[in-house]
Amino acid sequence: MSEKIKAAIVGSTGYGGVELYRLLASHPYVEVTSVTSSSSPGSLFSEGYPHLTDIHQEPLDEVNPELLKSKADVVFLATPAGVATKLAPQLLETGLKVIDLSGDFRLKSPALYEQWYKKQPADEAYLEQAVFGLAEVYGEQVKGASFISNPGCYVTATTLGLVPALEAGWIKPDTIIVDAKSGVSGAGRGVSLGNHYSEVNENLKAYKLNKHQHIPEIEMVLSDAAGEPVVITFSTHLTPMTRGIMATIYAKVDGSRSAADFIDLYRSYYEGRRFVRVRGEGILPSTKEVWGSNYCDIGFAFDERTGRITIVSVIDNLVKGAAGQAIQNLNLMMGWDESLGLQFVPVYP
Amino acid sequence: MSEKIKAAIVGSTGYGGVELYRLLASHPYVEVTSVTSSSSPGSLFSEGYPHLTDIHQEPLDEVNPELLKSKADVVFLATPAGVATKLAPQLLETGLKVIDLSGDFRLKSPALYEQWYKKQPADEAYLEQAVFGLAEVYGEQVKGASFISNPGCYVTATTLGLVPALEAGWIKPDTIIVDAKSGVSGAGRGVSLGNHYSEVNENLKAYKLNKHQHIPEIEMVLSDAAGEPVVITFSTHLTPMTRGIMATIYAKVDGSRSAADFIDLYRSYYEGRRFVRVRGEGILPSTKEVWGSNYCDIGFAFDERTGRITIVSVIDNLVKGAAGQAIQNLNLMMGWDESLGLQFVPVYP
Amino acid sequence: MSEKIKAAIVGSTGYGGVELYRLLASHPYVEVTSVTSSSSPGSLFSEGYPHLTDIHQEPLDEVNPELLKSKADVVFLATPAGVATKLAPQLLETGLKVIDLSGDFRLKSPALYEQWYKKQPADEAYLEQAVFGLAEVYGEQVKGASFISNPGCYVTATTLGLVPALEAGWIKPDTIIVDAKSGVSGAGRGVSLGNHYSEVNENLKAYKLNKHQHIPEIEMVLSDAAGEPVVITFSTHLTPMTRGIMATIYAKVDGSRSAADFIDLYRSYYEGRRFVRVRGEGILPSTKEVWGSNYCDIGFAFDERTGRITIVSVIDNLVKGAAGQAIQNLNLMMGWDESLGLQFVPVYP
Amino acid sequence: MSEKIKAAIVGSTGYGGVELYRLLASHPYVEVTSVTSSSSPGSLFSEGYPHLTDIHQEPLDEVNPELLKSKADVVFLATPAGVATKLAPQLLETGLKVIDLSGDFRLKSPALYEQWYKKQPADEAYLEQAVFGLAEVYGEQVKGASFISNPGCYVTATTLGLVPALEAGWIKPDTIIVDAKSGVSGAGRGVSLGNHYSEVNENLKAYKLNKHQHIPEIEMVLSDAAGEPVVITFSTHLTPMTRGIMATIYAKVDGSRSAADFIDLYRSYYEGRRFVRVRGEGILPSTKEVWGSNYCDIGFAFDERTGRITIVSVIDNLVKGAAGQAIQNLNLMMGWDESLGLQFVPVYP
């Protein structure tokens, strides 16, 4: 490798953008050449994020496709819903590669996007072009692509926990219930009473039951895996911690399968993919065991009394659920080892 | 009321005992006349619990039925599994009223107890005598009883969330899945790596899936409500907070019922019982909203796409899930208003 | 006592107001007859604070002196800085008793108020009239007063830890350094990046060093105790917890005094005042040991190597640091036992 | 660099050992060839630390100098107090380089060690040989050394905050007071009531005032910088977070110096040392801003009213306070850039 590629990060205010910066800073083949801010171009990254003092020293750039084209080869969009809709096509037109971390290009159906996001959908041609970057499932399509739509955090934890079983036909699709729990950083850096420390600390809160905008995205992947439309019950809970998502997944098993069978099936499905770790019998992963890393850990418990399998899938929402998987997708796009720059150990404790 | 009754607390080391002390200290009709310790009788309560400095000044008593009889009218047992098995009958023999907060007398079947607790069960005559103190369901049987077995914390949150629907036949019993989450105090004060701060903080952990010893107790209550044997899938999660339990309950609805119908049904079932608050449409309770109080708050979300109802039931595990409900049972036993000494506002924030 | 007095709470949005409500709800001689809201009169208290569901059922009143006069005997003002400046005199004019929890009437000097609060000071006549309600120090002046200015949270913890030593001349005033730490609720319910969960959790932050607006208030009390002007170094830190203040206080000891001497001095000073608990030798209080209660606990460590005494003083910032002490002042004003309605045990764990 | 050096970690049970493993795993010039366990050699690292699943796959080695010599070039000792006393000399005898993270070789005086650690001191010859690895102060001595005693966590935060001012004679040594606060991981992984989640959460606790075993080590460094014996007042507090240390340091300024003067002085002292970041005027670092990284961030506030400077110094106790600085010392010993393998961005949020 003679030369690094140049990357720009659009959306430096939010947690997704700053996590991209952290991870890219130690990527051996990538140089971050531009970090932008729509609200305060010209200021320093470290003004909003003092932990970056002495680390990122250049002023923030404005969000300008021509400027980005002149400075970068690939652009990561870590912007609020609705921004990439317009911006991604502009960047693609200039010949830049684009990895969008927002939800704007995840759903292939504009109508579905409008229904769940209450916003104007993107142009259908670009929706079609965008490759859904669930790396362990659609990695082959990611290779060589120039426009990636990076999956949502809940989506990643849930679908990695379900796809192998659905593809194999081992569980009954209409019995799937997903009880998901997330740390607070998943809601972003924007201030609201809902993320006020005194309201969240020592509190557990269910929210958006059956209404989370990640539901159609999950069902899109699950339907694809099952080969038939899948409709699920999906609940989300806000947990008093900063990082981490756990999806506790319930489904009726079709036929006679043990937890050990599931472990074998998943290990076989994910063979060669280092970021999915399938745990041994009787072992369930906790969110801290993947904290700060790109792993998705999966464990199983089979209940003989009810014939249900419980699948526990955990990720760090900001890494595998956002910035880490985006970099994994960059690696795949570039034909590199998917783990480049992501081969670090989870932070524990 | 001319005179207070005298109460003793056996098991002052654990969180259940110290919470009983806190609550009883402001009960208008009760005086705590003895607090015992099997490990260090003669020492001060405030040595192990400095927050009681200058509050409880008498030395801890030894655990001795004769002594307890001489000092108290009613004894609360906040002891580890297996202690009340022998001790409760001895106390009852002396004529004392007994409220046992452990699991020793909850299951009517000795075989079931042995299977789930891996301990010698209690004498069947006493198992029969013990009234299961789920106050809002079995309150009539509690009135006038002299021996109460207080329900488990997970049991209280789960069954209060399910009994009205099961009794009414509105949900299909074989589709019930309970995804329960608990704060760390539920595991008691004994030290272990599992409750080490650095291991629990910023962590979410699933444990004892389908194996929690509260399962048979829950199924006992649910079967009673349904009029047929009910078998459930039950998961427990350790959440990084001290107090609080949330049971997120899923079931298929039998017939055509809206969330509003469920709200009406539950409000009607719990009419006159101030400690169950059924929330309005679209409102889900969080654990902090009952923190430090005896409330059980219940909310509903109906998913038209799947025909499932999601029921969210929250309690403070140490109050409604242990010490508070025990006092509520004492009130019922004595023929008092069930809310005596428990009419305080949740602590928020 | 034949009849309860009627109390109104102005400022129901903030944590001070809602904590007043919680505590007053179990006061034996007080009935809360009005809770006001300047932003949404007519709405329910439980809309903003769902933990009050089914507890407070009347709509919130508007902030109107005439209305308050018609409904209440005493008004608690839990309003942001600058509101009581105008409102308290209006209420006093109608003959209402007023307890102001804000900083508007704490400093006797209008110039000092303007300097530290950057706001228009109150009318001097009313500044003069207001009795500074540090209950264990100025309790005699509180008795029979009709206008109380309730001390700040940092002020209460710090001055209760210093007054006896300063009055006795045991420490050198010009060597006092106070390193104070507070939970997040002290900053109120208003949302800001500074109290965003993901920013505060797993973080410890020093702020407003030598600049906190409580400094002149502390020095006012300390100077009064020392009989000479006292100037201190005062630091504040934001700690990742909801409630609790610890003031770690350092000073050079004048003469030869041991920790035991200090303990005796303080126990003697606070004799008969149940809310100050002076800990025994070698024992230091932690914030959780007063959590949810009106206690101020104080412990000592003497360093022979340097001749310095370290005084550790802890309170719950929302109780002894705000609402609890306000009620203690009401009790004193009314000639009641100062602990009425406040005789509860700290919540632990 | 043609070949990596081989490193062994002794003490894989504790947080220091596992953090060494995490950091060394991404060091470009180091390969971890042995991880030992005295309690369960032959087992897997991931049994005790499931986050290492699929990462470290070799069984744990026994603690055996010959074995270590055959597998490694350098040994990191992350063992409890008293173990390295004997083990380090044995390893050095075989010709291995040794970096000891415990307190066994930090104090040059055996008598002082015995007094503060209540344990048998190490052989004086080895005490003499051990270079005290406070990298930014004694880095020149570390270069080329083969035996390093790595400083304590409190020591690192405190002395980096004081040495430049003391060397310059800008503060009065006999006025130094250090109010230090630490996250819970500093106390290690051993279970005790003191680190039980329910006891630590929502709690702030002062402990070991004037008695912490790091005091003589701090005074050793400060005396060296001042050129005269320095005695300080030193307090430690347990804060409800996993990682992070803040030392809030107070001292009287000698002469007329502003905060800006201190900033200049410190920036000059630490010039070229990337791991100390001296913050600009009016900016104070928080612990989260160095979380997971090897930085020590320092800020200043000068109080004109009292003539005191307040210095706020923060580190991650497990990185700069232990494993990170140990690796920094390895880099210096080897003649490499001190930041090798440590050039990562703090984890935020």
From TrEMBL, chains A, B, C, D:
<keyword id="KW-0028">Amino-acid biosynthesis</keyword>
<keyword id="KW-0560">Oxidoreductase</keyword>
<dbReference type="InterPro" id="IPR000534">
    <property type="entry name" value="Semialdehyde_DH_NAD-bd"/>
</dbReference>
<dbReference type="InterPro" id="IPR023013">
    <property type="entry name" value="AGPR_AS"/>
</dbReference>
<comment type="similarity">
    <text>Belongs to the NAGSA dehydrogenase family. Type 1 subfamily.</text>
</comment>
<dbReference type="InterPro" id="IPR036291">
    <property type="entry name" value="NAD(P)-bd_dom_sf"/>
</dbReference>
<feature type="active site">
    <location>
        <position position="153"/>
    </location>
</feature>
<keyword id="KW-0521">NADP</keyword>
<comment type="pathway">
    <text>Amino-acid biosynthesis; L-arginine biosynthesis; N(2)-acetyl-L-ornithine from L-glutamate: step 3/4.</text>
</comment>
<dbReference type="Pfam" id="PF22698">
    <property type="entry name" value="Semialdhyde_dhC_1"/>
</dbReference>
<dbReference type="Pfam" id="PF01118">
    <property type="entry name" value="Semialdhyde_dh"/>
</dbReference>
<dbReference type="InterPro" id="IPR000706">
    <property type="entry name" value="AGPR_type-1"/>
</dbReference>
<dbReference type="InterPro" id="IPR058924">
    <property type="entry name" value="AGPR_dimerisation_dom"/>
</dbReference>
<feature type="domain" description="Semialdehyde dehydrogenase NAD-binding">
    <location>
        <begin position="6"/>
        <end position="145"/>
    </location>
</feature>
<keyword id="KW-0055">Arginine biosynthesis</keyword>
<comment type="function">
    <text>Catalyzes the NADPH-dependent reduction of N-acetyl-5-glutamyl phosphate to yield N-acetyl-L-glutamate 5-semialdehyde.</text>
</comment>
<dbReference type="InterPro" id="IPR050085">
    <property type="entry name" value="AGPR"/>
</dbReference>
<dbReference type="GO" id="GO:0003942">
    <property type="term" value="F:N-acetyl-gamma-glutamyl-phosphate reductase activity"/>
</dbReference>
<dbReference type="GO" id="GO:0051287">
    <property type="term" value="F:NAD binding"/>
</dbReference>
<dbReference type="GO" id="GO:0070401">
    <property type="term" value="F:NADP+ binding"/>
</dbReference>
<protein>
    <recommendedName>
        <fullName>N-acetyl-gamma-glutamyl-phosphate reductase</fullName>
        <ecNumber>1.2.1.38</ecNumber>
    </recommendedName>
</protein>
<dbReference type="GO" id="GO:0006526">
    <property type="term" value="P:L-arginine biosynthetic process"/>
</dbReference>
<dbReference type="GO" id="GO:0005737">
    <property type="term" value="C:cytoplasm"/>
</dbReference>
<keyword id="KW-0963">Cytoplasm</keyword>
